[in-house]
Amino acid sequence: MNKVPAHSYAFYMAITEVVLALVARVRRDDPGQLCYDGMDLSHALEASLYFAGVHDPGLLLLHEAPANTLAVPRLQSPLGRLIAAQGFARGAALRAVRRRSAFLGTARAIWRAVRPRASRCAVVLEPKAQSMPILFLGRSLRFARFLRPLAEALREDCAFLVPAGESEVAAAVREWGFPCQIYHSGGSPQGPMGRLISACGRHLAGEAQAFSDVLAQMKGKLVVVPEGNAPDDEVLARVAEKHGIASACVQQGWSPILHPAFHNFHYDAMLVWGEGFADLLAPANPRQCFLATGNFHLSAAGGRTGPGILFLLQGFDDWLGGRHGAEAMLTLAEGVAGALPGQPVFVRPHPVVPMPAEARVRLERFPNIHIESPADVPLAEAFAKSCVSVSSYSTAILESIAAGVVPLIFNTAGLPRYWPDVADAGAGLEIRDPAEALQTLIGLAQDADRLGDFQDPMQAFTDRFFRFRGASAVVESSGALRRLAGLPEVRHAH
Asked: Are the C-beta atoms of residues 36 and 205 closer than 8 Å to each other?
């Protein structure tokens, strides 16, 4: 059991089932276990449990092990051990996990009783940030860049909250000309904690205390988070609620796997790209209000403007499909480039997954393959040069449709059909066989009429899932944020 297998869809679904059942049971029987200082952090714990679980190699090994195994892999975190102890493990392994979890729980309790308290960092308020009514959470440079168009539209009324230690984010925000308020996480929680939060969510309580220390001294009226599925996003929303401040999250991407972090949202509003996303998310988020305000990172003008074939890569090792899926995608790109030497082939790595050196060397053997960094080439620009996109299970499949670029979903990892079902809507193709995928791409690249057959279904799909794009989405989204913050409307020239 030394080799860690690739993540499987069944693994994600197993963790989802265990996490949602555990938190729902505690919420029903003893909801106080999920609280810190009167704030319900249950959804933040759901997200923490899920992300800790999917990144724990020991838990993945445990899931793939036979039921009669006696060997228990090392689980890396209390959250991983909690998931395993809920029945994720089986037979003898489950008994061993529960014994180990009980022992480690006792040891942690003793350590918390005798360890020195972490010191609290004094909040140094920046005068300009203190008076801003709208506060964007810039927890990473990637997400700060994502929120920047909204900040530009709200320039005189917004600031960024940036965690201490993220000096690159703080420097970028200040270079853009926005006030920046630093907050310190990881200090000692000061309020009463429920038992489950105390045992497994203490980091969430520390984050809540950090946000509370900042918001208590600021004059904010609205906090805005990107994506909304990170534990920090939910913690900030609950702290804001306690301080009488509204909260909003802005859709940044899409998960075709409805895991726990995308359940039980409760922001004052979630700004989604279109009504279609609200329809998909609503059953798992009954308390959430959705506003369809568009995608401001896509070009407002769709339509095919280039001859290229765009490959949108994802992971290379532990991602869905693992090394096998990555190898299939690279082989397909090589096959297309070799069969169509006069056709530009663009290869775009995932923004947070660097391309391995050996993969780059392989692709660079083909003069018509161009490897483009997401940091250097905006997605809208990449689409504008292409007539077809190729991906496996990515948000970019949907964005490709909105850009007027026919998506081919290359599903080699044994995954269910992509959700929402693009191929069934006639807005793209979903193919599992590598030979069929290669021949289809060659055919599409050489047949403009066949590409044209997708345009009407793609437009219908775009109307439902992308209500606004580009500048109009900025206007709609920033206007919605102004209303949530109680600020006066700004008239825009038409």
From this structure: yes
Strands 222-226 and 246-250, sheet pairing? parallel
Is 0.85 surpassed by the pTM of this model? yes
Angstrom distance (rounded) from CA 379 to CA 239: 34
| Closest to 204 (Cα-Cα) out of 394, 371, 44 | 44
CA atoms within 13 A on the CB side of 91: 11
Q: Is the dihedral of CA 82, 87, 92, 95 positive or negative?
A: positive
Residue 134, SS3 per DSSP: strand
Q: Phi/psi class of residue 244: alpha, beta or left (left: φ > 0; alpha: ψ in -120 to 50)? A: left
Rounded to whole angstroms, how far apart are CA atoms 184 and 194?
A: 23
Q: What sign for the dihedral angle of Cα 225, 228, 234, 238?
A: positive
Which positions ≥6 away from 192 have C-beta within 8 Å? 35, 36, 37
- Distance, in Å, from the CA atom of 367 to the CA atom of 214, rounded to the nearest integer, reads 53
Tell me the torsion sign for CA atoms 377, 382, 384, 386.
positive
Angstrom CA distances, 252 to 87, 118, 312, 480, stand at 33, 34, 17, 16
Pair of tokens at residue 209 = 């205390």
Instruction: Spell out the residues 6+ positions from residue 303 whose beta carbon is closer than 8 angstroms to its own.
Output: 404
Distance CA 362, CA 328 (A): 13
3-state secondary structure of 470: coil
DSSP letters for 224-260: EEESS-SHHHHHHHHHHHHTT-EEEEE-----SS--G
Closest CA to 100 of 125, 136, 75, 67: 75
CA count, 13 A, side-chain hemisphere, 253: 18
* Alpha-carbon Rg for the chain in angstroms: 24
Question: Buried b vs exposed e over 398-410: b needs ≥16 C-beta within 10 Å?
Answer: bbbbbbbbbbbbb
HSE (side-chain half, CA atoms, 13 Å) at 466:
30
Structure tokens at 363: 């692709």
Report mean pLDDT in 10-residue bins for the chain, 494 residues: 64 92 96 96 96 86 68 74 76 51 43 44 76 96 96 96 94 96 84 92 94 93 96 97 98 94 97 98 97 91 77 76 82 97 94 88 96 91 95 92 95 86 97 96 92 95 95 97 93 58
Which of 240, 241, 133, 249 lies closest to 488, judged by CA?
Answer: 133
Q: Where are the beta strands (DSSP E) in 406-471?
A: 406-410, 429-431
